[in-house]
Amino acid sequence: DELEARTLSRRYDGHQVQPKKTAALLKSRGWTASYGEGLQKVYYKENIIAQIYAMADWFSPADVEAPTIEGIDFRDRKTGQPVPFTDFSEVIFSEIMRDVDLVVSVAHVGGVDPEASLSTIEMRTVIIVEMLRLLKLTNVEMKGSHAFIKGTLGDYTVHLGSGVVHKMASGSVHILPVHSQHRGRIFLPFIDDDPKTAEIVAKIIFLAEDSKIKDPNILVQIVD
Predict the structure, then answer these.
(1) Each residue of 94-117: b (16+ CB within 10 Å) or e?
(2) Which of 30, 85, 151, 165 to pair with 221, CA 20 to 30 A apart?
């Protein structure tokens, strides 16, 4: 999905981080923080600027509201135009991803498991694949840390770590966690002690059957 997006990586979308710790960590790895540009790392020789999107005041003395990562962008240092991943060194891309991986591992909010670990993603993938088979849903594809869903009303991605939902070419979609909604025919007793996994499984099934959605709060976000 990153190559399809070409200039914006959503690999770490949905992770909440502590602003002060994040800024300090990234500063030690060559990033700068400014009021206008937020967090960015400049590669002068290659004329590439990497930026982390997150609504945050990186200079706030107190963590009022932990910012959520909303994408990592790559731009031309001279023109400011977005640069496709294929147009610059893989080494730069890998380095930026390692930096952000460090942040979500070390500076995540409140000591909560950031849920980006490979074992968690793999475990959820196995559960989701089996659930899709049982429900005979064939319009979901698992790729890396995302589920890609081809719905009737649109195409979506669900992050298997954070549960963040995006509608392709539109942006994030806010869906209440599974325990806040009537489950209908989805009964998941074997993962009820893991509410995040239950939430993610339910979101994927919910969107795979988007033609059945009645909730106006969700429909207004997904119907073009």
Answers:
(1) eebbebbeebbeebbbeeeebbbe
(2) 85
Q: Which residue has the tokens 């500076």?
A: 107
* Statement: the pTM of the whole predicted model exceeds 0.85: no
161 within 8 A of 14, measured Cβ to Cβ: yes
Q: Could you read off the pLDDT of 160-197 as tens digits, one per residue? A: 888 888 888 778 888 875 443 444 444 444 455 567 78
Q: In what order do the strands lie in the sheet with 146-150?
A: 140-143, 146-150, 155-159, 165-167, 171-173
Any long-range contacts for 209-215 (C-beta under 8 Å, 24+ apart)?
A: 209/137, 209/151, 210/151, 210/152, 210/153, 210/154, 210/156, 211/151, 211/152, 211/153, 213/153
Residue type at 191?
I
What is the CATH T-level fold of the domain 2-111, as seen in this structure?
TATA-Binding Protein (3.30.310)
